[in-house]
Amino acid sequence: MASTASPPIAGPTPGGDEATAAGTSALGVRLARTMELTRSIVSNPTTMVGLVMVTALIAMALLAPLIVEPNTPDPAQMPRDWGAIAVPPGSPDHILGTTNTGGDVFYGVVWGSRTSLRLSILVVSITVTIGVLVGSAAGFLGGRVDEILMRLVDVFLSIPELIFALAIAAVLGPAFRNIILALAVVYWVKYARIMRGQVMTVKQNDYVDAARVIGDSPFRIFAKDVLPNAITPVVVQATMDMGNIVLVGATLSFIGLAEAGLAEWGVLVAEGQAGISSGRWWASTFPGLMVFLWALGFNLVGDGMRDVLDPRTESSR
C-alpha cells in the first residue's frame, strides 16, 4: 500500500520574522521612552502644579453647562439681573456677586473658561498648522523658497505682537471672532521660525543622508525622519502659547474689541474696573485671577515639557 506523503509544514519566513521583530523592538523603544518622559514630568513638582491647574480649568470649561445653567438664547452672553446691581459675593443667587450692570460674576468666570479654551485651541491650531507648513518648506527645500518665506516672516516679526493684533482687531471691528483672526495672523510666524531652524538642523543628520542613499523620496524622508525629530520645540511653544494667547485675548477684550456682555474674562474685568475705587472689587478680581491662573498653569506645564524634551536643557543639568 502506497504511503501518502504528508504536506510540508510551512516554517517561519526569515524576512517576516525580522520585520516583525524590528517593529516590535521599535514599538517597545517608543513605549519605554514615553514612560520615561511621563515619569520625568510627573516627578517635577512645578509641572505637576501646572498640570493640576490646567486640568481643573479645562474641566470647568467642558463642564460649564453642568456647573451653571446656560443663558438663553445665547450661552456666550452673561445673564443680567437688573434687580441685583453690584451685589457682593456670598449671595445665594449670585455666589461671586454681580457687576454694576447686574451681570453674574460666577457665570462669567465659568463660561469665560469655555470662551478662553475655544480661543486658545483655535488660535494655536491655526498658527501651528501654518507655521509648521511654512517653516518646513523653508527649511527642507531651502534656496529661493527659504529666502522668500523668511523675508515674509521677517516682515511680520518686525511689528510688535500686541500692537499688530490690536491694529488688526480694531480695523475688523469689535467681535470675538476678529480677536481670534488677529491673533492667528500674528502668532504663526514664531512657529515658522522655530520649525525652519529645527528642520535645517535635523536634515543634516546621518540618518537623513542614509535615507537618501537607499532611495527614499523627499516626502518620505521629511515625514519619517525629519518632522518627528523637529516638532518637539513647536509642541513646547504651543503649550505655553495656550496660556499667553488667553492673556493677550483678555487684553484685547478689556479695551473693547469683543462684544459687550460676552462671557469672557477680559470683558468682565472691564465691566468691574469702575467699581474698584468704591470698594466693589469682586467683579474684576475673580476674572482677573482666572486669567492669571490660566496663563500660569500652561506656562508651568510648558516649562516642564521643555526641561524634559530639550536635550540641551537635560545636558546642562
Residue ranges: pLDDT <50 for 5 or more in a row? Answer: 5-13
What's the number of extended β-strand segments?
0
How many H/I helices? 13
Class by SSE composition:
mainly alpha
> Given this structure, which CATH class of the domain at 100-316 is correct?
Mainly Alpha
What sort of overall outline do the alpha carbons produce when their principal axes are compared?
Answer: elongated
Task: Explain what this protein looks like in three dimensions.
- The longest helix is centred in the middle third of the chain and has 37 residues, at 105-141.
- The model is unreliable at 5-13 (pLDDT under 50).
- With 317 residues, this protein is mainly alpha-helical.
- Helices cover 72% and strands 0% of the residues.
- The protein is elongated, with a radius of gyration of 26 Å.
- It has 13 helices and no strands.
- It has helices at residues 14-42, 45-62, 64-67, 105-141, 143-157, 161-172, 176-202, 206-213, 218-230, 232-254, 265-272, 282-309, 311-316.
- The protein has a domain at 100-316: MetI-like fold, CATH 1.10.3720.10.
- The relative contact order is 0.13.
- Helix 4 runs parallel beside helix 7, helix 7 packs antiparallel against helix 10 (232-254) and helix 8 (206-213) packs antiparallel against helix 9.
